[in-house]
Known about the structure:
Layout: H1 3-15, E1 30-32, E2 36-38, E3 46-47, E4 53-61, E5 64-71, E6 78-82, E7 95-98, E8 104-107, E9 113-116, E10 125-129, E11 135-139, E12 144-147
Antiparallel strand pairs: 1-10, 2-7, 3-4, 4-5, 5-6, 7-8, 8-9, 10-11, 11-12
GO molecular function, one term: kinase activity
Main location: membrane
Membrane topology: Single-pass membrane protein
Amino acid sequence: MDxxxxxxxxxxxxxxxxxxxxxxxxxxxxxxxxxxxxxxxxNDVLVSPNGVFSAGFSSVGDNAFxxxxxxxxxxxxxxxxxxxxxxxxxxxxxxLSLLRNGNLILLDAGRIxxxxxxxxxxxxxxxxxxxNGNLVLHNIKNESLWESFNSSIDTVRVCDPNxx
Length: 164
């Protein structure tokens, strides 16, 4: 096959590839800067690479949701950390967003911030759910800016001590 035809075919395949919205997750355990997780989309969750933990919105009442990390390897998924335990968001238009300035923020339907990591970064950042259930905000130098494990008032560790 002529090399030019091969590259034209390859280019046409890339042009037909699906595009992702700003709330899309490039990897199921990473949220990229400028992206968000929506309370309205059940599939907007982060999953640890080993599948033991997930992070997303959990129902805590009638039209009331909290952003939580869940331990999935039990008969009933168990919440091990919660960002907004005392201030649930409603089921429409609420989201967790990783802003371009490096702040992780939870907004309710009225766009009122209910929780924040209170972080900023002059360089790119990403949010990662690790195999041990720790939700970590990193910069591209792999430096930790915020971790759910350090938010101890809302954390319960449920993992093998060798992997924590």
